Amino acid sequence: MAQPCTVAGCAEPRFSREYCRTHAYRAQRYGDPLAASPTTRARLTQERLRQALAGMRRGLSTDAAAAEAGFTGRALRKHLTALGLSAADLKPPKPEPTEPDRRERVRRLARIERERTWAAEREQGTRTYNVHTGEKRRDLHILLTPVAVAEVHAEAERRQCSLSALVNAALAEAGIISDV
C-alpha cells in the first residue's frame, strides 16, 4: 500500500516523493502545498448580473458587459441561456430614422419622378434609348404595353427566332440598319 501524503490531515496516497496529487500540484504551482488556489472567477451575483444586463441594454457586447460587471462573457452567456434570453433580446432598440438630409431627399424625389415617368411611358408604349459610349454599342430599350408584348412574343414564336433577332429583322426591313 502506498504511503499517505506528508501534509497533516491528508490521507491521500502519495503521488510524488512527499505529496498527493493535489498537494504536489499546489507545491509546484504556488510554491506551498497548503496554498489555496486564488479565485480567478468572480461569483455571478444577482447584482452583477443586473449590471451586465444594463451594460448590454446600453449597447455593449456580451464580453464587454461581463467584463464591466467583473466576470466572464461565457458565464454571462450561460446565465442568459438559463433565463431563456439571448444577447439579441437585450440590444438597445434602433433609433427612429430622422429626416433625411437635403441631398438624400433630392435623390429620393428624383427616383420617384423617374419611376413615375417610366410607368407613364410603359403605359403609352413609347421608346427610350440608352447609349453606352464606352463600349461603342447602343442598346435600344422599347417600352411596350402588355398587349404589344404579347403580339411581339407571338411574332417571334411564329418566325422561330429570338426577340433580338426579330427587332434586328424589323429594323433591317425598314432600312434603319444594314442587314448584318
Task: Give the structure's gist in a few sentences.
49% of the residues lie in helices and 7% in strands. The chain is mostly helical.
Global structural class = mainly alpha
Number of domain modules = 3
Strand count, sense and closure of the main sheet? Answer: 2 strands, antiparallel
Report the sheet-strand fraction: 5-15%
| CA-CA gap between termini | 103 Å
Q: Report low-confidence residues grouped into runs of 5 or more.
A: 127-133
Query: What does the average pLDDT come to?
Result: 80
The strand count comes to: 2
Main β-sheet, spatial strand arrangement: 1-2
Comma- or semicolon-separated keywords:
7 helices, two-stranded antiparallel ribbon, 180 residues, mainly alpha
Structural description of this entry:
With 180 residues, the chain is mostly helical. It folds into three domains: 37 residues, no CATH class; 45 residues; 58 residues, no CATH class. It contains seven helices and two strands. Strands 1-2 form a two-stranded antiparallel sheet. A hairpin with a 4-residue loop joins strand 1 and strand 2. Helix 2 crosses helix 3 and helix 3 packs across helix 4. The radius of gyration is 39 Å and the shape is elongated.
